[in-house]
């Protein structure tokens, strides 16, 4: 028995890695089971929700993507925690709250739904194992009686019904014979108290008695009868228990039976590690040898070039020195002039003529050199500038021999940037590559290149977060097969949005006309259908009236800061208006009759009827641009050409809107190139909302924030 206890102690200590929370990196405390089946501490779920909420969705945040769910934050306030725990907690019309966050274990986004944390099961089994581990780790640390007067005695048993530990005397006092408490369940001393029966989080008075095979979670009979699992396949709890226990036992027996094989593989791995160590050092030595050869060649070329420059410099200086000496000889009382003056003193004609002839030739030569001065050599060394551009490019591409591994190609059409960057690439030899290295770096405005950041990726796509707003980034990728890598792909340059991405959905209540507009369940897409209602309203066209626009707005308002959002207009759309509008202007629009309105006489109708040019100089509480028939229409402006060919642009695939609330300015962007198409002042004295309007057939799709769910979800969760 002692040997068995020792083995159990060794076993419980060896599983510490399985008992660590992936968020706080500490032993689990009251672990909860997420929809993806990973467990996480109760307090960590709260912090992740608050962190993700503050970093991505809080209204007025100028820097909403600075935080990371993996960072430990100060303890949140109790009112925020209570608000998250409260059933039905969701976003309001003025503030953005979320129940979605990335799981720290698999990085897959999980949605807790309307019930939030209260809808998650507590992992009592894991909690019990953690408690046994703690007891094994502290071994000699005793659990004291909870009811003793100081000093407390060591407890001998714990009551699962009372959730307390007792010494022998206190247990007899508080659990006397012949009372109900005498029937309580008691176990050895423990600090882990768990309920006898698991209750349903959805129906708190119902016990768990079934197992949903689709959702892979326990449910009650009310969940099956009329709840979220009514159409799911369920089985009895006893059947699920038996099936899962048989599978788990079978797999455990298989692993135990393969112990010798595992030990052999561990030995093989140790040999491979040693071999890798040796091969790595050998590869380093070979690389150093190759670089030393390059250094020798460069040193040789450097010495040759410097000698040539020195020789040319010496030759030119000698020529300048000779020329300078000649000119110095022309100076008064020096050299040739002084000698000529002495010759002029000769009175004997024969002697004078004999000497003066040669002297005259020299004087004439010096005179001519004065009349046409020209330096004896050039000062420029332009012919000696070393051209290393080609060699620099080749050295920049210096890499390991590819050994037949093709270069990956980044797919520009499937790669984009929004709140995060999504990079997709194609590799012809995908099956032959073990992994990829995705590199990215920021390009400063003065074209200064910063160092590359590297990320190892197993697939052919990756989401990169925490990029700076209004910045330019370059991306490239290379493939690895063992220690051999391919050359880098061609760089892809992307421009991030000018401000943090603003998260909102279409409001299905405020001004939404369900007779004309069709909103999908996710509330991120709206369509306008040209049906009988439009035909009936068109009768008023005979008297010079048009049918009105159907408005729809975002469910979150803006009261401060810089925000950016994007959307796509369907190519078949006839007329779409998009922009921003204040809360008071929206109330005015949505209270007015909607059957028939003349846009010529209602300035705020949103039609391009001439109202823009009459009120352009004044700051209005709204700005809407017109999109339709595959065109983007620039509103009229007194400072630019109003010719149709200058105001009508091809409709971008995706359109972005940037609102600077504090400066009262709104801008419209072509998302494909992150280029500003139009901007103007807007009155932001009230809460501003994303506003849209449609007439005739049309459709608007909000851009979905880029997250890990863009990638193929690996593994069976």
Describe this structure in words.
By secondary structure, the chain is an alpha+beta fold. The chain has five domains: 11-53 and 96-141, Zinc/RING finger domain, C3HC4 (zinc finger) (Herpes Virus-1); 200-232, Classic Zinc Finger (Double Stranded RNA Binding Domain, 2-Layer Sandwich), CATH 3.30.160.60; 239-370, no CATH class; 409-496, Immunoglobulin-like, CATH 2.60.40; 517-592 and 619-702, Jelly Rolls (Sandwich), CATH 2.60.120. Helices cover 30% and strands 21% of the residues. The strands form nine sheets. A seven-stranded antiparallel sheet has the order 21-22-35-25-31-32-33, with no helix packed on it. It has a six-stranded antiparallel sheet with strand order 24-34-26-28-29-30. Strands 15, 16, 18, 19 and 20 form a five-stranded antiparallel sheet that branches. A hairpin with a 4-residue loop joins strand 31 and strand 32. Helix 9 (335-343) packs antiparallel against helix 10 (349-371). It is extended. The two termini are 39 Å apart. Mean pLDDT is 78; it is low at 1-10, 57-96, 593-617 and 712-717.
Mean pLDDT: 78
Please give the domain count: 5
Number of strands: 35
β content, as a range? 15-25%
**CATH-level-2 architecture of the largest domain:** Sandwich
Q: Look at the structure and give the CATH class of the largest domain.
A: Mainly Beta
Measured as a percent range, the helix fraction is 25-40%
Q: Specify the CATH homologous superfamily of the largest domain.
A: SPRY domain
Low-pLDDT windows of residues: 1-10, 57-96, 593-617, 712-717
Protein name: RING-type E3 ubiquitin transferase
Domain COS: 344-401
Region (Disordered): 59-79, 596-618
Domain Fibronectin type-III: 407-499
């Amino acid at each position: 028995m002692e040997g068995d206890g020792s083995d159990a102690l060794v076993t419980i200590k060896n599983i510490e890695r399985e008992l660590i929370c992936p968020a706080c990196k500490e032993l689990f405390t009251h672990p909860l089971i997420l929809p993806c089946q990973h467990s996480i501490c109760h307090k960590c779920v709260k912090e992740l929700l608050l962190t993700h909420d503050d970093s991505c969705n809080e209204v007025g945040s100028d820097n909403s993507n600075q935080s990371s769910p993996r960072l430990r934050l100060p303890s949140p306030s109790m009112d925020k925690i209570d608000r998250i725990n409260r059933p039905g907690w969701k976003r309001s019309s003025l503030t953005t709250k979320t129940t979605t966050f990335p799981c720290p274990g698999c990085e897959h986004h999980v949605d807790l739904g309307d019930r939030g944390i209260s809808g998650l099961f507590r992992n009592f089994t894991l909690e019990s194992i953690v408690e046994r581990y703690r007891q094994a780790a502290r071994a000699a640390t005793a659990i004291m009686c909870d009811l003793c007067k100081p000093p407390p005695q060591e407890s001998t048993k714990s009551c699962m019904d009372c959730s307390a530990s007792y010494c022998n005397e206190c247990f007899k006092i508080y659990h006397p014979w012949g009372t109900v408490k005498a029937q309580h369940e008691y176990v050895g001393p423990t600090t882990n108290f768990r309920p006898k029966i698991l209750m349903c989080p959805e129906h708190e008075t119902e016990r768990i008695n079934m197992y949903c095979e689709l959702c892979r979670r326990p449910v009650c009979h009310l969940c099956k009868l009329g709840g979220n699992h009514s159409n799911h396949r369920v089985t009895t709890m006893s059947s699920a228990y038996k099936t899962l226990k048989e599978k788990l036992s079978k797999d455990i027996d298989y692993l135990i039976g393969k112990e010798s094989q595992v030990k052999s593989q561990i030995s093989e791995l140790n040999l491979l590690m040693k071999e890798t160590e040796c091969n790595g050092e050998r590869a380093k030595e070979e690389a150093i040898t190759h670089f030393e050869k390059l250094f020798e060649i460069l040193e040789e070329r450097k010495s040759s070039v410097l000698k040539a420059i020195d020789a040319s410099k010496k030759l030119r200086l000698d020529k300048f020195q000779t020329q300078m000496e000649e000119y110095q000889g022309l100076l008064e009382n020096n050299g040739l002039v002084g000698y000529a003056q002495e010759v002029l003193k000769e009175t004997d004609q024969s002697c004078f003529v004999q000497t003066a002839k040669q002297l005259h030739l020299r004087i004439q030569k010096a005179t001519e050199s004065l009349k046409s001065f020209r330096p004896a050599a050039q000062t420029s060394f332009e012919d000696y500038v070393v051209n290393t551009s080609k060699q620099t490019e080749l050295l920049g591409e210096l890499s390991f021999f590819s050994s037949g591994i093709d270069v990956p190609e980044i797919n520009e059409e499937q790669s984009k940037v929004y709140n995060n960057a999504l990079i997709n690439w194609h590799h012809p030899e995908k099956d032959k590559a073990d992994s990829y290295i995705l590199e990215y770096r920021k390009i400063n405005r003065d074209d200064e290149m910063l160092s590359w950041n590297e990320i190892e990726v197993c697939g052919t796509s990756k989401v990169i977060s925490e990029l700076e707003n209004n910045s330019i980034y370059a991306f490239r990728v290379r493939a690895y097969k063992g220690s051999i890598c391919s050359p880098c792909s061609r760089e892809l340059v992307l421009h991030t949005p000018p401000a943090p991405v603003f998260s909102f959905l279409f409001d299905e209540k405020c001004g939404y006309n369900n007779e004309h507009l069709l909103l999908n369940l996710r509330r991120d897409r709206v369509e306008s259908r040209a049906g009988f209602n439009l035909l009936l309203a068109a009768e008023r066209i005979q008297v010079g009236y048009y049918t009105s626009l159907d408005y729809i707005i975002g469910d979150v308002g803006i009261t401060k800061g810089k925000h950016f959002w994007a959307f796509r207009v369907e190519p078949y759309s006839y007329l779409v208006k998009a922009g921003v509008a204040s809360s008071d202007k929206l109330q005015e629009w949505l209270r007015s009759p909607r059957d028939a309105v003349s846009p010529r006489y209602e300035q705020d109708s949103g039609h391009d009827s001439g109202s823009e040019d009459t009120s352009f100089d004044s700051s209005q509480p709204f700005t809407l641009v017109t999109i339709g028939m595959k065109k983007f229409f620039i509103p009229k402006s007194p400072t630019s050409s109003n010719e149709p060919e200058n105001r009508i642009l091809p409709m971008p695939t995706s359109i972005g809107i940037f609102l600077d609330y504090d400066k009262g300015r709104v801008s419209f962007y072509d998302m494909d190139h992150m280029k500003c198409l139009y901007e103007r002042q807007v009155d932001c004295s009230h809460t501003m909302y994303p506003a849209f309007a449609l007439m005739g057939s049309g459709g608007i799709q909000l851009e979905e924030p880029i997250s890990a769910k863009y990638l193929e979800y690996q593994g069976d969760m």
